[in-house]
């Protein structure tokens, strides 16, 4: 029995290590590729005011595979929202100003100084404005914050729908931005 458990754990870890992204979307006619990471974190954080909450850190890579420059615009309000799968749990989404780098992928929270970020940005609106030059990519963090944990895994990532950027968290779509081709 122990051998079987060890084999299952070993095979699972090999499978997970071989997967670099949770999701990858290629939008052929637009030349845009979006790659979304698995979550890191899921830890409690106690703010200076004594309030506790849970955070999860993700990173995303948006690639421009065209000969034109693209402008990326993402906005998240300060207002909380709930997910149909987690009624009664309030969520906020925020984008740190720090740019993600691939060499930070193995670090806790993907190398983001989460404590400083949370103390500065909790419950505030956030946005991202980036220019993606032809045949290059922009990598950035997204932090999902909730007032309590959820049952089961939290999966999230950016997608394009009808020309708009949405942030999908489990079964909930949050329209949050656009990509403009110049």
TrEMBL record:
This is Uncharacterized protein. It comes from Dokdonia sinensis.
